[in-house]
Amino acid sequence: MRIRFIAASLAAALCTVPFTGISVAKAENTCTTGDLNGNGTLDCPDILILQKYILGAEKLTLESAVSADINGDGKVNVFDMIDWREQYSETAVKLDLSGTFVTDSGAVVRIAGDCGNDGVSQFSVSCKGEDVSFSYPDGVKKSGTVSFSDKNHFSVKWSDGSTENFTRREIKIIQGITYVNDILIANKSYSLPETYNPGALTADTQAAFEKMQAAAAKDGIKLWVCSGFRSYSYQAQLYNGYASRDGYTKADTYSARPGHSEHQTGMAMDICYAASWFDNTPETIWLAKNCYDYGFILRYPKGKENITGYMYEPWHIRYVGLENAQLIHDSGLTLEEYLGIDSYYH
Predict the structure, then answer these.
(1) Phi, psi torsion values for 252, nearest 5 degrees
(2) Residues with Cβ < 8 Å from 184, sequence gap 6 or more?
């Protein structure tokens, strides 16, 4: 919803002043009602700012004061906090609580959406604030309280005291290529066809790397791609060479079989040196701290070898786009964990 804003000359100043039941004069503005911290979405920091202001422990800028006038009555008070909670709950449910999800137990469920005869159970959900009621096809109903981690993850604390986690997992297979939540996947469980060959890093991946490379250079860090796109046939040569030298079992811990390599996607790259000694260098430390700002994730982190299927590789990054990179980075999860998928040769 668009809101109106204080005169432009005052808005430009954005002076911080205390407000007490402030009356808000309005003119056009593009910020969202309830978005007090100005990050473009409704989230917990917004309500904390509003609560602190109402308690007299927080000041509001002129802009955030206008955004805090949720009910549009020209004042900022406890009634706006009530309306904020209702607005947040409705927005969160609308954005997050629909689609196909996998649960802690591995069960796949559909919430709303279509219903097929593929063994995937479906249930409908009715919400009032944070309280949810799940109705299953067999007539069973469960109720609980929902909490959201991000748009792809939520948990429900059931009325019996147990908690269940839900991870969005929308899988599409297009011309033999697997997409999970619209992210192209290549790992031990999901392969690419031999014919898939972008021929180089994708344009978006290359552009993102060049932007990151320039930013690193300003910090005195030199980054370059020592291995980018690899075709199916080239990956076959590499893998078979490693297997001949170290055996297939050992090779599977650090090299992908043909068709299963992220390098074939054109969205993955090894930075500088693909060697164990490269760990804890200024380059790997910079990558770990900053690469998500440019749409990349560290694909094979330390301690997650049993999940990703590969040894720790601080030099291997994967382009997933800015929004996904931010979400995955903030979650602290691997790509497999974040998407609710596995990685092992079937």
Answers:
(1) -65, -15
(2) 177, 178, 265, 267
- Conformation bin of residue 218: beta by default, left when phi > 0, alpha when psi is -120 to 50: alpha
Task: Count how many residues are written for the chain.
Answer: 346
In contact, 167 and 181? CB cutoff 8 Å: no
Cβ atoms 122, 137 nearer than 8 A: yes
- Other CB atoms within 10 Å distance of the CB of residue 317: 31
DSSP 125-164: EEEETTEEEEE-TTS-EEEEEEEEEETTEEEEEETTS-EE
Question: So where are the chain's domains?
Answer: 2-92, 97-168, 187-339
What digits encode the pLDDT tens for the residues 299-335? 999 999 999 999 999 999 999 999 999 999 999 999 9
Structural contact between residues 148 and 91, judged by C-beta atoms closer than 8 angstroms: no
CB 187 within 8 A of CB 298: no
The domain at 187-339 falls in which architecture?
2-Layer Sandwich (3.30)
Q: Quick one: pLDDT at residue 59?
A: 79
Three-state DSSP class for residue 71:
coil
Grade residue 112 by pLDDT with cuts at 50, 70 and 90: low
* Nearest-angstrom CA–CA distance, 228 and 201: 7
Gyration radius of the chain's alpha carbons: 24
Active-site positions read 313
CATH of domain 2-92: 1.10.1330.10
- 137: pLDDT confidence band, cut at 50, 70 and 90? low
Residue 321: alpha-carbon gap to chain centroid: 10
Give pLDDT, residue 32: 54
State the Cα–Cα distance between residues 50 and 88, nearest whole angstrom: 13
